[in-house]
Amino acid sequence: MRRPSPPRCRPAAWMAALLLTLGASTMAACPSERAGSPPDAATLRAWAADATVPSSRFEQLAPELADCLASPDPQWRDAMGFEVLSAWMRAGRLPPVTLRRLRDRWLAVLQGPDDAEGFHAPFAALALSEVARVDRVQPFLSDEERQALREAGIAWLVRWRDYRAHDDVQGWRHGVAHGADLLMQLSIAPTLPADGAARVLEALGSQVLAHGQVAYLHGEGERLARAARFALLRSGWRAAQVQGWLDGLLAPTAGTGLDEHRLRLLHNARQFLWPLYVMLQEQPDAGLRERSLGAVRQALARLD
Predict the structure, then answer these.
(1) Closest Cα to residue 74, out of 123, 127, 14, 128?
(2) Average per-residue pLDDT in the chain?
(3) Which DSSP state fits 171?
(4) How far apart are CA 168 and CA 172, in angstroms?
(5) Which of 265, 263, 260, 294 has the alpha carbon at shortest distance from 277?
(6) Nearby residues of 136 by Cβ (< 8 Å), 6 or more positions away
(7) N-terminal to C-terminal alpha carbon distance within the chain
(8) Which domain of life is it from (predicted)?
């Protein structure tokens, strides 16, 4: 569901004030921190398809909107920050030099200390998934840059322990799902090497059970499965390797008791395995189906 956008105002006046501020400082800040209100998110999204909007506007505004991803207000973080930047990236309105600057900002967030509010890093990961998508559709990154992005996404997802997903007032955090989206975009690309795919699969597997801390309720298992489907395709793993990977990530579910901790583990395992099973059945690559479906089927049987 699309969230309500900030109130409307006169875009021209706001743009003039914003560009004046940009000229006075090299440090970007989310427009919510400034006096007055900017155009609403729908207006900014519409710029993506408006050929009369000059490229300089996108390049100047993008760093401002990038800082909105840290906002605790979902109207600024989701609608004004992520959704607008995503629309611009998908429409090809941000040139490679701007995309690299945004990538560097968001990589620094993933590699820096966790913020207590828990918004910035998950949305930096989600925004980086859009950067990876642009590169997949129209490559502009080098192999070294892709590897650096992949390794940062892997390291961040593996260490992430904030499982807050959605709040009725503050909106989404959803770190695991967003981290999975980043790794999925990197895994769809045929440029992903087999060893990189194996590392992606290990990272995804590390969050399947949420370390028993929570029971996933907001589609996290499905998002992990979507990424795993493409990583399995790129990995070239044999059936025995798929089986070994599943055995390892499901090892904590072993046992006979049904205490709350184990129930969470079993729930999360099913939340991942069932979507993965369906996705693999629909996978057009017959080799992947042959190598993977049997192992997933056996893993599901073990949970009964």
Answers:
(1) 123
(2) 90
(3) E
(4) 9
(5) 294
(6) 185, 188, 189
(7) 35
(8) Bacteria
- From 2, 1, 33, select the one nearest 17 (Cα to Cα): 33
Length of the chain: 304
Cα gap 270→3, rounded to integer Å: 31
pLDDT, tens digit, 9 for 90 and up, residues 185-196: 999 999 999 999
What type of residue sits at position 277? Y
CA angle 234, 174, 87 (to 5 degrees): 75
> pLDDT by residue (tens digit) across 277-294?
999 999 999 999 999 999
Closest Cα to residue 60, out of 13, 93, 103, 104? 93
Name residue 15's amino acid: M
C-alpha angle 93-99-102 in degrees, rounded to nearest 5: 125
Map residue 92 onto helix, strand or coil: coil
* 3-class SS shares of the chain: helix, strand, coil, % to 5: 70, 0, 30
Helix axes 175-188, 220-235, angle to 10 degrees: 20
Write phi, then psi, for 145 (nearest 5 degrees): -70, -40
Handedness of CA 251, 257, 262, 267 (dihedral sign): positive
Distance (Å, whole) CA 118 – CA 69? 11
The pLDDT, as a whole number, for residue 8 is 36
Question: What pTM value is reported for the model?
Answer: 0.89
The rounded radius of gyration (Å) of the Cα atoms in the chain is 21
Q: What's the token pair of residue 162?
A: 């904030």
Q: Judge contact between 242 and 232, C-beta under 8 A.
A: yes
